Amino acid sequence: MNIYFWQSNISPHQMPYISEVAKMGHNVTLVVPKTGQLKIRQDSGWNTPDTTDVNLIVNPDDSEISLIFETKNTEKTVHCFGGIDFDPMVYKGFLKSISKNVKRIIISEGPDLRGWRMPVRWLYAKLKYSKFKSKVDSVLAIGENAQKYYRFMGIDHSRIRPFLYCVEDTNTGIIPQRNDNLKALYLGGLLKIKGVDILLNSYTQLKNKFQLDIYGQGTEESNLKKFTKNNNLDLVTFKGIVNNQTIKQFLNTYDFLILPSRKDGWGAVVNEALMAGTPVLCSDNCGAKQLIESELQGAIFKTQNVKDLKNKILFFLNRGPVSPDKRIALIEWSRKIHKTEVAKYLVDNLEKI
């Protein structure tokens, strides 16, 4: 197949499976408006992924976009649009494809469902999609919110399939011994939407404190450090930015990862932790909550609910440090979210269209 991926950036959460699709023998082209990494991902330690396995088109103008669709291919051609609501170039490419004999797929997470503007946004989107919903052959919806969103847009449920972000494997092949004392981490941007303040508020209510390491930077950093100091949270440490390669070396030394986001379309750190054998506690407004299937993977708390987060942390405290056997079991389970499996799932869905 000839497969075009139209995306708003070179995503470290999608390039792993895209590269795998190319290695399977398909002719893969990535179309993006720029090559630089997003600031929010830089603040979380992500590097720009390698694109040597695919054809790369950067910031095409109108004539170059037209040329993409004029290219004659003898094989089946599929265009996968990484959300048509969030990037002008991606939307322009989608509109140009409407009159062409190609297969159109949307691969996207859901929109932010919070705030008073939400009904207006949904109504506007509903009107927009009414013009071309019949032209969408399939939606690979990343997270529960995405499935709800595209059903509301009028896409038949039979054409909507669950999908997920994926990351490079974080399993180092080394299983550390059980910790003497429980350790947890937060990994991501220090931004209001990420909810680290919610985590610290819950932490203050615990009688028994534990080591909590916070990785990342952002606009809320000074406020969070001030809160920590004022509340004498001596076991909370701010570690700054650590690049993704370094993170792999120590992620499996923690007993759980906490992702307290007010809203997270996905939350790829959940994938990273699980593949390293580290359980996760995340809010129910994270798309990646769908990976928490049982206590093996971790637990989910109600978004912005300080009490519920505290109670879920107590669950981890009562369970204690993770044993080597539990890490091995979690790593074995996580093979299903490995980039090779995600790539196979994608290609299987494209071939059925």
Textual characterization of the structure:
With 353 residues, the protein is α/β, with parallel strands linked by helices. The chain is 35% helix and 18% strand. It has helices at residues 15-23, 39-42, 62-70, 88-97, 118-129, 144-152, 196-204, 221-230, 244-250, 268-275, 306-319, 324-333, 339-351; strands at 2-6, 27-32, 55-58, 77-81, 103-109, 138-142, 160-163, 183-187, 211-215, 236-240, 256-259, 280-283, 298-301. α1 (15-23) packs across α13, α3 (62-70) crosses α4 (88-97) and α7 crosses α11. The two termini are 12 Å apart.
Proportion of helical residues: 25-40%
Based on CA atoms alone, the radius of gyration comes out at 21 Å
Number of separate helices: 13
| Percentage of β-strand residues | 15-25%
Kindly state the mean pLDDT as a whole number? 91
Order of adjacent strands in the largest pleated sheet: 3-2-1-4-5-6-7
Shape: globular
What pattern of helices and strands is seen along the backbone?
EHEHEHEHEHEHEEHEHEHEHEEHHH
Assign the structural class, choosing from mainly alpha, mainly beta, alpha/beta, alpha+beta, or little secondary structure.
Answer: alpha/beta
Separation of termini?
Answer: 12 Å
Low-confidence stretches: none
Largest sheet: 7 strands, parallel
Number of DSSP strand runs: 13
